[in-house]
Structures are given as structure tokens and as C-alpha cells.
Specification:
Helix content is 79%, strand content 0%. The protein is mainly alpha-helical.
Length: 203
């Protein structure tokens, strides 16, 4: 999928085109979420009040910038792996090559949203530090970032599940599903905790 502006992305997302879809949207949301965390960091550095955490925040900003880029790359990667899957579904069921082709493309189409989830988990970890140590004037943005990354995490999970559901290799499917469940259990709770902590400081 070629790079496009947000208007074009949203228009194509709303169309009947096979890509972009939920996986790409999840990756974009994750990138937006960690960008909000990074904004908190950018508003923290250079302030005398936060001089004691400046080195830590600068290091955090560098990690956040890398994560943002990785998530944006995963937007494109998700489209790349979904197109072969959409074509594979049209292979006649009596074609002897169908099962082998489907096994390959289903695994590829599951691995990308799984990686999106991993990156969202990393983002939530970073946002937790931004919320705790970043500028109090921007703490709401850390809470927003946590909420958005949680949504991205849960959305990407559905994109794993829809592919593992169709796998004939049930052992592989369960292995992938198990990793999804672990991330959801740990990081949805963590994102909610960050969000609630931020809200309590504001209300």
C-alpha cells in the first residue's frame, strides 16, 4: 500500500477495497497513541521543573519515535499480507494447492497484527512513564495515548483471531491466540490503570 494522506486513507478505508482494513487502522491508532505520549515528553524537556528527569524523558522520546515509525510501517505491512489472503480465498476448494496456500497466507496475515499488538504493549509501557514523570500540563495527553493504544491493541487482537479461526493447524492457532490473550490481559489492565490515574488528577 503506497503512502497516502489521512483523507485518502480514510476514504479508502471506508470503501469496498480489501485494504486498508482493521489491521492498518489499528497500527495507525497505535502510532497516534504513542505520538501523544511523545508530545508529553516534548513538552517536558527543557523545563527547569523537570530537570531531574530530563535525561530519562529524552531517552523515552527516542524510543517513542522509533515505535511510531514501526507502527506506521506495520500499516503498510498489514496491507501487503492481506492482499494475498484475499486472493487465496477465491481459490476453488477442490484445488489441491488451496490448503497449502491458505496455511501460508493465514500465518502471515496473523503475524502482522500480532506484531502491532506487541508494539502497542511497548507504547503503553512508555506512556505509563510519561504519565508519571512528564509535564502535568500535558498529562491528559498521556491518558489519551493510553486509551488509544488500548483500543489499537484490542482491535489488532480481532485481526489475529479472524485469521487463526480459519487455520487448519489448530496447534499453531492456539499458540498465537495464547499470546494474544496474555497481551490483552496484562496491557488492557495497564492502559486502564494509566487512564484512571490521569483522570483522577483531572477530576
Amino acid at each position: 500500500m503506497k503512502k497516502m494522506n489521512l483523507d485518502a486513507f480514510a476514504e479508502q478505508l471506508a470503501s469496498n477495497a480489501p485494504v486498508p482494513g482493521g489491521g492498518g487502522a489499528s497500527a495507525l491508532a497505535g502510532a497516534v497513541g504513542i505520538a501523544l505520549g511523545n508530545m508529553v515528553g516534548s513538552l517536558t524537556t527543557g523545563k527547569k521543573k523537570y530537570a531531574d528527569v530530563e535525561a530519562e524523558i529524552i531517552a523515552l522520546n527516542e524510543k517513542a519515535a522509533v515505535l511510531r515509525g514501526q507502527l506506521l510501517d506495520l500499516m503498510e505491512k498489514d496491507a501487503e499480507v492481506f492482499e494475498p489472503l484475499s486472493k487465496a480465498y477465491s481459490i476453488p476448494k477442490d484445488d489441491p494447492s488451496r490448503d497449502e496456500v491458505m496455511a501460508v497466507v493465514l500465518k502471515q496475515a496473523s503475524e502482522v497484527p500480532l506484531e502491532i499488538m506487541r508494539k502497542c504493549c511497548e507504547a503503553i509501557d512508555l506512556i505509563g512513564v510519561y504519565a508519571q514523570k512528564g509535564s502535568v500540563l500535558a498529562v491528559s495527553d498521556a491518558g489519551c495515548g493510553a486509551a488509544i493504544c488500548r483500543a489499537a491493541l484490542e482491535s489488532a487482537a480481532l485481526n489475529v483471531y479472524i485469521n487463526t479461526k480459519s487455520m487448519q493447524d489448530r496447534a499453531l492457532a492456539e499458540h498465537l491466540n495464547a499470546e494474544v490473550r496474555v497481551m490483552l490481559d496484562e496491557y488492557c489492565a495497564k492502559a486502564e490503570m494509566i487512564y484512571n490515574a490521569v483522570k483522577e488528577r483531572l477530576v
